[in-house]
Design a protein that fits this description.
The chain is mainly α. 54% of the residues lie in helices and 7% in strands. The protein is built from 13 helices and five strands. The structure holds tryptophanyl-5'AMP.
């Protein structure tokens, strides 16, 4: 089992990233060979400030380590330090089809009405993501639900490349999407996902938020006036209520249906304070470790540089076989 996954170092690590992906990273680092990276090359697909990206990359690395990613168990690095990602992307650009990329919902969402003004990097983003996982012959890619389409594209690219070149250069990666917490929603709107780019900070819980702020965000979270039912089916049509139950269950590592057994018949006046206490108790140790680490740039750079060296070695063989398969002399 070879596990590969990444996160963009833009904005804060929030509860959606943590429950949807990072919790699985931490579990998987004890089960197989893992490579986890900061997708800094992806981050330049949108207008950005270099100093913010530099600081954000180190900060996200600190947040991952604080969340339990252990650089002694998993290879942790930033993409920019491993040029093979960008190299392989270029090789795959010959395989990826315009029509495939045109169908990607992320490009449609992020370019909005300004498609002509979007960067080529935003359009080609999923090809770089395919390179990220194919470079290491990843078997498992733990992600939240929103990355499913990108990983299906990575499989299509791998398959077409193998067919076109008559080789078995790439292994087809499997997305590994957890069941319950794969899509944590905004606290303000149960129909949109919790996201780093939501302009309202009240929509998400950041791993670095302090206890008071967490309690305030949960208190103000949008809900309804109905009490909680005793089955998840009865939460259909109540996306905000469903989301809070999902968060509670994921934080405790239980099934949402079990949580409803404890709270059936109670209203949000009772459930929200319980959720706030639980969230604070789970996040406090992470935020403490994060605060202790986040200003130690030298230590973080050393970890990322060491991880990059290891990743480059791991990816070298497949990169070489991709050049070879295409008939490129080097
Ligand atoms: P990113 O940075 O948006 O998110 C990192 C991880 O968090 C998951 N996630 C969520 N899960 C549940 N609920 C949410 N509200 C939520 N929001 C985010 C994402 O699904 C992801 O797993 N393109 C990727 C980064 C990337 C990558 C890769 C991932 C680059 N290369 C290769 C896997 C493999 C992204 O922008 O994730």
């Amino acid at each position: 089992m070879r596990v590969v996954s990444g996160i963009q170092p833009t904005g804060n690590l929030h509860l959606g990233n943590y429950l949807g992906a990072i919790v699985n990273w931490v579990k998987m680092q004890d089960e197989g060979e893992c490579l986890f990276f900061l997708a800094d090359l992806h981050a330049i697909s949108m207008p950005h400030d270099p100093a913010t990206l530099r600081a954000g990359t180190r900060e996200m690395a600190a947040a991952l380590i604080a969340s339990g990613v252990d650089p002694d168990k998993a290879t942790l690095f930033n993409q920019a330090r491993v040029p093979a990602h960008a190299e392989l992307q270029w090789l795959l650009n010959g395989t990826a089809r315009m029509g495939w990329l045109n169908r990607m919902t992320q490009f449609k969402d992020k370019s909005g009405k300004n498609r002509e003004g979007a960067s080529i990097a935003l359009f080609a983003y999923p090809v770089l993501q395919a390179a990220d996982v194919l470079l290491y012959n990843a078997t498992h890619v733990p992600v939240g639900d929103d990355q499913k389409q990108h990983l299906e594209l990575a499989r299509d690219i791998a398959e077409k490349f193998n067919n076109d070149t008559g080789t078995e250069t790439f292994v087809l990666p499997e997305p590994f999407i957890g069941t319950d917490a794969a899509r944590i929603m905004s606290l303000r709107d149960g129909s949109s996902k919790m996201s780093k780019s939501d302009p309202s900070d009240m929509s998400r819980i950041n791993l670095a938020d302090d206890a008071d702020l967490i309690a305030k965000k949960i208190k103000k979270a949008k809900t309804d006036a109905e009490p909680l039912p005793d089955s998840m089916d009865d939460l259909a049509g109540r996306p905000e209520a469903r989301n809070l139950v999902t968060i509670y269950a994921a934080l405790e590592g239980r099934a949402p249906a079990d949580v409803l057994q404890d709270y059936a018949g109670q209203g949000f006046g009772q459930f929200k304070p319980a959720l706030a206490d639980l969230t604070v108790s789970k996040l406090a140790p992470i935020s403490e470790r994060f605060n202790a680490l986040k200003n130690d740039d030298a230590a973080i750079d050393a970890i990322l540089a060491k991880g990059a060296q290891k990743a480059a070695q791991t990816g070298a063989r497949i990169l070489a076989s991709a050049y070879e398969a295409l008939g490129l002399l080097r």
